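dude i think i finally got it to work??
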Amino acid sequence: MNEIERMQKYLQLIRRAVGWSAEEFGERIGVTRQTINNIEAPNPRSKLTKTQYIAMRSVLDVEIHQHPEDTAMLRLILDVFVDHPENYNEDEKKALLAKANMLTPSILAGTTTREAVSEELTGAAVASGIITGAMLGTIGLVMADAISDWLIKAIFDRKK
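look at this
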């Protein structure tokens, strides 16, 4: 599975982690709410295109850059499920996914802040040994330094 397919598989979680409705996310990348819903569906009615992937990653990167204090969870989710899943074992991914799926809907519901959920999820990831505190900082630095890496890979990989 390539990163575009992984992005599609975890898109709803990623969108919830950033706190955007399907309509808000669609507006940011220039598509409709229905397009986002079709991509996110359990049995997707639409396949995520390379262009949509690039648009999504671009707006997520901007959000991470503009709000580093409350996007640690988003950086972690992208690293574990999209960018570097090979660095984590299946039990770690399952544990993180279960916790993230439990916490992220509260952001959209407005019952908690993105910062509070980010702190709780990353704290749980550190406590359970999925990552170390140093790794979390490294993930942030690597993502900041590698913003163009995913773009270069997406543009020049002819297999997608």
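The first helix runs from residue 3 to 9.
im so relieved honestly
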